[in-house]
Design brief:
83 residues; alpha+beta; three-stranded antiparallel β-sheet
């Protein structure tokens, strides 16, 4: 199973007459987006969880990078054994 995680900041309107977004000052939200089997799904992250979710996404990206590095090293090691 292959999946990837991303955090995405977006801006939006509530469309309430007395709200600042009605004057053009948009609200900022954080969404967690997951791509799995070619399909995207997203969820709005509550403010209380945003720092934790951002850290989890950064940790995920670091793990993916390390896995790629180990994979490349293993590939080179196997090529050397063939010789």
């Amino acid at each position: 199973m292959v999946s990837s995680w991303h955090s995405l900041g977006t801006f939006g309107h509530l469309w309430q007459g007395n709200c600042r977004c009605a004057r053009g000052e948009l609200h900022k939200s954080l969404y967690l987006v997951q791509s799995q089997a070619g399909k995207l799904r997203q969820i709005c992250v509550p403010k209380a969880w945003q720092q934790r979710v951002r850290q989890a996404v950064n940790d995920y990206r670091l793990m993916q990078k390390l896995i790629e590095e180990v994979s490349e090293l293993e590939w080179k090691r196997l090529q050397e054994k063939k010789r």
